[in-house]
Every structure is written in structure tokens, then in C-alpha cells.
User: Fold this.
Amino acid sequence: MRKSAAEPEKRSTVQAEGRCACGTVRFEIDVPAFWVWHDHSRATRRAAGSAYMTWVGTWRRRLRILDGDDAISRWRDEEAGATRSFCARCGTPLFLERQTSPKFIDVPRGLFATRTGREARYHIQLDQQADWIWTGAPLSPLKGYPGVMQERAGKKPGPRAARQSEARLATDPFDL
Assistant:
């Protein structure tokens, strides 16, 4: 991933720096990023361990590893047709390189402390969205637990929602 010394680096006037949780791997991208989106795919959910991952997409040539290049481990995700990189020391997901977009690289938005020049306005793979994700239902404070919010009790899901949930469980419970 590191550029060769002979190749000139193209820089914008502004960069956004990111790092893994332990700080071993540090990198920067030129701002603005190309785009930012929320990925609800099963493959990303498994890799991230969360309902979805917000990615910052940038041209590969606009990403520079500042430190920790030797601590980056890579794993080829055949199902997704992508290579996922992570910090070998702390396990933080770092980069997603899609086979279908070889000139781009995606970086988790949460690794940046500053703005990347784009807002997350897109959602992909909504058909694979987890059924347990919070979808904007009203929240209220949980009494006795400062800073904790809870969804208000509402109607129980109707028979159609129950059938859909049962159908998902019947296919592969690990895809939820």
C-alpha cells in the first residue's frame, strides 16, 4: 500500500488523519473523500461486529500510511470479493479493497478524528440490514442510568413481521 519513493505524492491542501485503536497504524487521506456510505451487508456486519459500517471511499493514490505499515494484516474475503485489512496488534478494521473497484480503497469513518469532506448520505445492501438495528424509534432516558436511552414500548410486530423474522432464522441464523 505504501507508495514508492520515486512516485510523487499528490496532496490536497487538507488531509484527514486516521488511526487504529492502539495507535500503531496511522494513515491520512486527502480531503475531500470521494464519498461516504453506510454498508449494511452481512459480510461487513460480520467483519465489523456491528449492525453496519460507515465507510469513507477515496482514491487509492490519496491514501498514505504514515506509521505501522508492518502491523497491517490482510484477509481475502472471497464471498465479498474484497480484501480486508486490520491492525495485527489491536484488531481494528482498517481498509476494504473491493475487487470491482481497484482504484479505490475504503476506510471506516470512525477511525478519523476530523472531517473527511463528505457526509454519509448513502446506504447500501439495505436488503441485508439486520432486523435488530435501531431505525429511529423514539428514545427516552432510562431512569436511574444517566446517559442511557431506551426505545419506548410500542406495538408488537404484526404477523407479517413475525413471519419475516422466522424466515430469516430458518435460512441461516448467523446471517442476522
Observations:
- The radius of gyration is 19 Å.
- The CA atoms of residues 21 and 125 lie 27 Å apart.
- The chain has a mean pLDDT of 86.
